[in-house]
Amino acid sequence: MTAVLFDFSGTLFRIESTESWLRAVLAETEVPLSEAELVQAAGALEVAGAQPGGAFPVALPEELAGVWAVRDESAELHRAAYTGLSRRVTLPDPALHDALYERHMTPRAWTPYPDAARVLRTLREHGIGVGVVSNIGWDLRPVFREHGLDAYVDAYVLSYEHGVQKPDPRLFTVALEALAAEPAKTLMVGDSRPADGGAAALGCRVHFVDPLPAADRPDALLPVLDLVGVARRPAAPTRS
To answer: InterPro entries from the entry (predicted)?
Structure first.
């Protein structure tokens, strides 16, 4: 293997809990809410699927089905889908819905999985190209920079920047071209079989991880090093 493509949410990074998400926004906006009301509202937001990177909607409203299906094809569609779901939950101030959406795009809302840095660093040391291929509606590069992982990524291929979302092979093709990588020598790592599994149509090998909370998944990425054959191989000369 000469290249590895990674999904973002649920693979390299995990979004904060829904309760933490709401609690942070309430603190930032100084909107009062009792503890019981906060917990209840957080639960309702989770059921609604209002947090990007969090749980999917338990029941997708018919009026949002169309935008939900293509939500990662543009920044506007992404915001419309998630704020639409959020607004199905009554909050003490309507402005909180947009504040919640803004919060999820900040680096402090995301935590890298404990083994992410080790795996990315090791791939870089062995000269393996690394790409991030994400269905997303906003620029995640600042998240990688803030957490010190940007130096290990050679290419970012984000659905909203290309108007196409996984599993469409075209998005994976962009990543392969950016890395000058052959599909047969590329591994795709993700948490979604329907989305990330699309890389298999091009001939890439695919490996799946579970999108557990970061504290509950300390080493699920480590097998990637064995799969690409670098776990026991001496590091390549440092890139200039």
So the answer is: HAD-like_sf, HAD-SF_hydro_IA, HAD_sf
**Architecture label for domain 3-14+110-227:** 3-Layer(aba) Sandwich (3.40)
Specify burial of residue 173 (Cβ count, 10 A radius: 0-12, 13-18, 19+): middle
What pLDDT is stored for residue 234 in this prediction? 59
Instruction: Please name the residues in contact with 152: beta carbons below 8 A apart, sequence gap of 6 or more.
Output: 117, 120, 121, 123, 124, 130
pLDDT of residue 232: 62
What are the residue boundaries of the structural domains of the chain, listed by start?
3-14+110-227, 16-108
Q: Closest Cα to residue 96, out of 23, 40, 43?
A: 23
pLDDT of residue 160: 98
* Beta strand 13-15 pairing with 155-158: unpaired
Q: Which residues of the chain have pLDDT under 70?
A: 232-240
Looking at residue 235, what is its pLDDT?
Answer: 59
d(CA 143, CA 140): 5
